[in-house]
Structures are given as C-alpha cells and as structure tokens.
Design goal:
homodimer, DNA-binding, 3-stranded antiparallel beta sheet, mainly alpha, 144 residues, 10% strand, 3 strands, 7 helices, Arc Repressor Mutant, subunit A
Chain lengths: 144, 144
DNA sequence: CTTTGTTGTTTGTACATACAAATACAGTGG
DNA sequence: CCACTGTATTTGTATGTACAAACAACAAAG
C-alpha cells in the first residue's frame, strides 16, 4: 500500500478497469475447460438460446461493437460451433450440434465463476456491486 | 431492453467489463487533448510526481503487468516525455521537461473526466460506486 | 425506377494488455 | 569466489476490442 499523491483509486475509470482485469483473470480460469474465452462463451450461449439471432442483436446484448461480433462469429464458425445464414443484409446465427454440446459446460463454468467471486467478495456484496454497476451502465449507455 | 433468458447483467464479469468499456470511451475523449491514452497519462503523472520511480513500482500502482510497463515506457520515451535510467537490473524513470509540461493538461483532463461521469451518475453515487469497486479490487488482489 | 438516406455487416488497421520464456543482475550459503 | 535462487526487465507472441471506412441491401420519396 504505497501511498500515492494521485488518488487513482478515486477515479472510476481506473477502478473500473482494474476490476475488469481482475474479473477477466478469474473468468479466463473458470472458462478454460470450455475451450472458449468468456466473451465467446456468452455469445455462443445466446445463440444456443435464440437460434437465428442476428449479429446486431448480439452486439446489443453483449454491448460489443458490431465489428467485434463479426470476428467472434468468424471464430465460432471456424470451430464449427455456429452456422451463419446470410439473408439480405443481415446475418443470422444458428448453433451446430457441437455448439449445443457446449451449453452445459458453459453453464457450469459460469456458475463456478459466480461461486469463485462470491467466495471472495461475499455473495450479497457481490450481488449488490453487480447491480450497482449495472445501473451505472444503463445510465451511461443512454447518454452515449 | 430485449429480454434475455441468460441474465448476463447479473454477472460481475460481464457488468464490470461493460463499465470499463463505457468509462474507457469517456476517458479517451477527456484525454484526447493531451495526446495520450488515459493509461499513459496516469503513468506519466506518477513519473512526474515521483521522479526516479521504478517500473516495478509503477506496475503496482497501476495494477498492470510489468511487460505492459515496458511498452508504455518505450512509448513515453519515444515521445521524449520520460527518460530511462538503467541501474543494475532496475529501470528508473524521470520526466523530461516536455513530460512535465503535460502535468497541467493531464490534471485538467482528469478533472473533466470526473465531472463528465459525475454529471451522469450523480457525484455522490459516482464516489460510492468507485469506492465499492475499489474495496472489491483490494480483496481480489489479495487472493491473486 | 432511380436517387438518397439508413441500417447491418465486413475489412483494414491499431491499441491495450497479457503470459511465458529469455535475460540480466543481485544476494546467499558454501 | 562459485553455484543457486530469486527479482526486475525485456521480448515474442497472442487476444480482445475498437473505430473508421467500405460495402451491401433495403426504404422512402420524388
């Protein structure tokens, strides 16, 4: 705890990024068994649940840029976890059987991630923090 | 607000990353005038305040990997904003006059970032959220 | 039915960041 | 003084993510 005349930990940009990196490490470990990064896993999960979902919709659900979704879709398609259907200007994604087979492992990894950080932060605090952050995101999104 | 049977917004990994991206965008805008990314600006700030600081120390203050600090130092040195002094195995960083000249612009950008998000979240909520996140980070760091 | 604006996707490119392995130095027990 | 161990840095390489520009398809209006 070296002292620091610039109080970076009082800056939301700074703390938010540090938290994201911390959680990223944890999530990477938790999802390692699935062979997918957490973000790819979330994406596949959405495709499994809503076959035919478009990339636009995915980018909204995941708050990721459309171009990012293109790359992710490339990657999942390359591994035969989803199939793309181009209809007009939109692209719809459907899970393959290999993709669906990952549903369970992903759900488990996700649960395990939840347990991991709950163990450190306390379940209740974790839930509250998550909810507070989510509220903040809603306001920030609206003004973007 | 499309509904989603997978409640990603109840996952701390997910919300934390979304917040980091949101804040990142804001910070990029706020720091644009300085010609530096927010992270580089923070680093330069620390060097300005503690001339002779080592990369190890910087990596602790900034919660960034040592290798990342090497690249950042490269970049700042390349733009003649810091000078490196290799002494034994450690590297100490000193600001140049150009680096020091950026102190003020950086401080202003930082303040402006603070005002920006405070305007959206409310100053008090912003402070509380930042502090909550900081607490969480402290616990997560300890167990890494 | 053509022009013009809007929306969904893709591509080129760039950046922050990380991990693992390599390197270079420093300190210790023999 | 030497071998061994630990610590600070660097390098190679990879990933996630973004923006801006290009592109493709549709919609609306003249």
């Amino acid at each position: 705890m070296t002292q620091c005349s610039t109080y970076m930990h009082e800056c939301l940009y700074f703390t938010a990024n540090a938290l994201a990196r911390n959680m990223g490490k944890m999530a990477d470990k938790a999802f390692k068994g699935t062979g997918l990064s957490p973000s790819h896993a979330f994406m596949l999960m959405l495709v499994n649940e809503q076959p035919g979902i478009t990339q636009k919709e995915l980018s909204e659900h995941l708050s990721l840029a459309p171009s990012t979704l293109t790359r992710f879709a490339d990657s999942l398609a390359y591994r035969d976890l989803v199939q793309r259907e181009h209809k007009g200007k939109t692209v719809r994604l459907y899970p393959t059987s290999a993709g669906m087979a990952l549903s369970e492992p992903i759900a488990q990894a996700w649960k395990s991630l939840y347990l991991d950080y709950s163990a450190i932060l306390g379940e209740k605090s974790g839930i509250e923090l998550t909810s507070d952050i989510d509220q903040a995101n809603k306001r920030l999104d609206d003004l973007a």
